[in-house]
Amino acid sequence: MFQFALATVYLDDAPRAVLIAGGKAIDIAAATGEPRHADALVVVENWAALLPQLSDIARTSKAGRNVSGLRFAPPLLRPGAIYCAGANYADHAAEMALAKGQPVPPDPHDLGLHSWHFIKTMHCLAADREPVRMHPHAKKIDWEAELAVVIGREGRDIPQASALDHVMGYTAANDLSARDLAARSKMPDGSSFKFDWVSHKNWDGSCPLGPWIVPAHEIADPQALDIELTVNGVVKQRSNSREMIFSIAEQIADLSRNITLRPGDIILTGTPAGVGAGQGEFLASGDVVQVTIEKIGQLTTTLV
Questions:
Q1: Are residues 62 and 89 both part of a single domain?
Q2: Which residues make beta-bridge pairs with 244?
Q3: Do 29 and 159 lie in a common domain?
Q4: What is the domain extent for residue 211?
Q5: Are residues 148 and 283 in the same domain?
Q6: Which of 85, 121, 188, 190 could form a disulfide with 270 if both were Cys (CB 3.0 to 4.6 A apart)?
Q7: What is the pTM of this model?
Q8: Which residues does residue 32 pair with via DSSP β-bridges, in sequence order?
Q9: Residue 156 in contact with residue 252, Cβ under 8 Å?
Q10: Which stretches does DSSP call E strand in 241-293?
């Protein structure tokens, strides 16, 4: 699937940055002799300089523990920011509009619009196979499979043509959403203060991420990856990253018009049709959600 990937796993009960290669987890700090490399964020911040050495370690190291049975942490325990693209697949935008009795929206390119994003905090992160507690004040918990981008090189006002040069790698995400907390019920529909994005999108465990980050050089075309999500083994979402309205490069360029992107920042690039809100179906305790992205792997989340 890939030659190697970057992950964070618990070794002797402590989170450590590792290379995943050949079914083994190789402790990066032990391999490089640099204690700071135990933190995956430090590895990402120095990715360009470390890449030749990491490639050599992944190819030649005889050390490492079997990946099977290891407990994963989120690949980055403390990312700088988590940006999430809204309505970035036309079929998803259409299903959400229809669910609300609204007309199907036009392509925002035709209106001269840029991509738009909301933010999740790092406190929302959950690891692969980590149980996620149901939101205690919501009854309509939804799933959203997303390709996630990890920034590896700082930039501001990044040209679209060179935007992918700022990408360190890719991983899988599930933008869990508390749909019934999205709108403040006592505010009028036309109010500027109607929507509550914090309650809707930011709660403990609402951003499962992982299980690892596949380096950008391992994925020739990030706009040609199959994406699938199942709930209890039943396919709910099935699409391809080519169906994005705004490409990854466009999103990087758009975000960097307003703020400097830094190593360790994460961009969730949008979700395709098939979310629960479009069908009036939502998650319950005990449900198992699996996001599978081609060339990356599978992210598993159990709701409890």
A1: no
A2: 89
A3: no
A4: 82-302
A5: yes
A6: 85
A7: 0.96
A8: none
A9: no
A10: 266-268, 288-293
